[in-house]
Amino acid sequence: xxxxxxxxxxxxxxxxxQQAATAAWCGYGTGPDAVLRLNRLHDPFHVxxxxxxxxxxxxxxxxxxxxxxQRAHPTRHDDAxxxxxxxxxxxxxxxxTGEPGGAMRVLWTLGWEEGDVRAAxxxxxxxxxx
Length: 130
Known about the structure:
It contains six helices and no strands. The protein is mostly helical and 130 residues long. It has a domain of 83 residues. It is globular and about 45 Å long.
């Protein structure tokens, strides 16, 4: 029998710790502004990724806007949300670290060039460096 461990952190503290780990993985560092920098760019990148994938919208932003917490059972749309989230985080990491991950390989397969992807992402945030 496996022992069940209890996480002493509150749900909010656990979420903040996860966001800090994600910001560090994406190359934003571990300082107090790392999560802020990650999140400031995150939603605009969802819009760009939706367009790069040939969609007229971001499945993730639509999912959030239409009350995803009300669903009792996962749908194929939920799978698209998970995929898009992974692509956005991977592209944020690529812009910060220069390491092309799986997301860039997917976009190359779809015919996108690295420079075009970089320009689209930077244009979404007013041309500023992430």
